[in-house]
């Protein structure tokens, strides 16, 4: 795996780079091959808050995680844990689909708890995406400011609406920094 480690408001020292590569390198055991995979790591420091963002684009899958902590090394550990959970969750879903269709090819290597590759199937905990509720409603034409007001009145984190200017379906959402975002379809 190739690593692209960048820093914002922080100098990426060789010690930090080595720690990132060693920690994130541990997830390589989950894949059959990572020769052409590129891991993009962005380290940020704002107001004594350390933030790490990791993106690993692969064929048919993009792993992405971000974590904030007061300690940079703790944030790196937390983001690696998050990536491993994503891999296990996705691996279980992919392997279940492939088993159902009868295909012998598996996207991920099986790994037992001590880190060694396993040659037997190990069932991981499953966080199934259970659909528990369906809502249907007519989209009212409005502008993004009115959609934000409606979202806040309802107490939701996002709101789907029909953009009056473009006649397209849009989504406004509340960002982690307290500001708002707009998603437009094309």
Nutshell version of this structure?
By secondary structure, the protein is of the alpha/beta class. It has helices spanning 14-25, 72-101, 144-154, and strands at 2-8, 38-46, 49-58, 61-69, 141-142, 158-163, 169-174, 180-184.
In which order are the strands of the major sheet placed?
1-2-3-4
- For the termini, the CA-CA separation is 34 Å
How many helices does DSSP assign? 3
Low-confidence stretches: 116-126
Helix/strand-derived category reads alpha/beta
Tell how many strands the DSSP assignment holds.
8
> Mean pLDDT, as a whole number?
80
Work out the oligomeric state of the chains in this entry: single chain
What Rg is obtained from the alpha carbons, in whole angstroms? Answer: 21 Å
Approximately how much beta-strand content do the residues carry? 25-35%
Helix proportion: 25-40%
Shape: globular
Give the SSE string.
EHEEEHEHEEE
Query: Main beta sheet: strand number and arrangement?
Result: 4 strands, mixed
Question: What features would you describe in this structure?
Answer:
By secondary structure, the chain is α/β, with parallel strands linked by helices. Helix content is 28%, strand content 29%. It has three helices and eight strands. It has helices at 14-25, 72-101, 144-154; strands spanning 2-8, 38-46, 49-58, 61-69, 141-142, 158-163, 169-174, 180-184. It has a four-stranded mixed beta sheet with strand order 1-2-3-4, covered by helices on one side. It has a four-stranded mixed beta sheet with strand order 5-6-7-8, covered by helices on one side. A hairpin with a 2-residue loop joins strand 3 (49-58) and strand 4 (61-69). Helix 1 packs parallel to helix 2 (72-101). 13% of the residues are buried. Residues 116-126 have low confidence and may be disordered.
């Amino acid at each position: 795996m190739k690593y692209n480690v960048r820093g914002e408001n922080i100098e990426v020292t060789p010690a930090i780079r080595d720690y990132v590569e060693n920690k994130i390198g541990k997830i390589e055991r989950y894949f059959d091959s990572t020769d052409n995979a590129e891991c993009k790591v962005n380290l940020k420091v704002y107001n004594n808050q350390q933030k790490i963002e990791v993106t690993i684009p692969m064929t048919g899958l993009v792993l992405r995680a971000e974590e904030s902590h007061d300690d940079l090394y703790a944030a790196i550990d937390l983001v690696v844990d998050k990536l491993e959970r994503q891999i296990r969750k996705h691996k279980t879903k992919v392997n279940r689909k492939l088993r159902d269709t009868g295909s012998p090819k598996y996207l991920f290597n099986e790994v037992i708890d001590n880190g060694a590759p396993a040659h037997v199937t190990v069932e991981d905990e499953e966080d199934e995406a259970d659909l528990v509720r369906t809502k249907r409603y007519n989209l009212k034409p409005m502008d993004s400011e009115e959609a934000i007001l409606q979202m806040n009145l309802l107490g939701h984190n996002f709101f789907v609406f029909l953009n009056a200017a473009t006649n397209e379906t849009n989504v406004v959402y509340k960002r982690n920094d307290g500001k708002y975002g707009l998603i437009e379809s094309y």
